[in-house]
Specification:
Layout (H helix, E strand, L loop, with lengths): L1 H28 L6 H26 L2
Helix pairs in contact: 1-2
Length: 63
């Protein structure tokens, strides 16, 4: 039972960190947009930036 509770809490923490990262990236990228298309690209970049972060981190660690 305790293992399941820990798993749920770890999932919630990861979701919170991702959400804060998304909001921060969106706040940074969207105001720089000069058109609606660039705004959409900014939102997409805000969604997928953690993928590139994890990829580069794993490459740096040599995994």
């Amino acid at each position: 039972m305790a293992r399941r509770v820990f798993s749920v809490l770890a999932g919630l923490a990861a979701g919170a960190v991702y959400s804060l990262g998304f909001i921060g990236a969106a706040v940074y990228l969207i105001p720089q947009a000069t058109s609606i298309g660039e705004g959409v690209i900014g939102v997409l970049k805000a969604i997928i930036w953690p993928v590139f972060l994890v990829y580069e981190l794993l490459g740096f660690l040599g995994v």
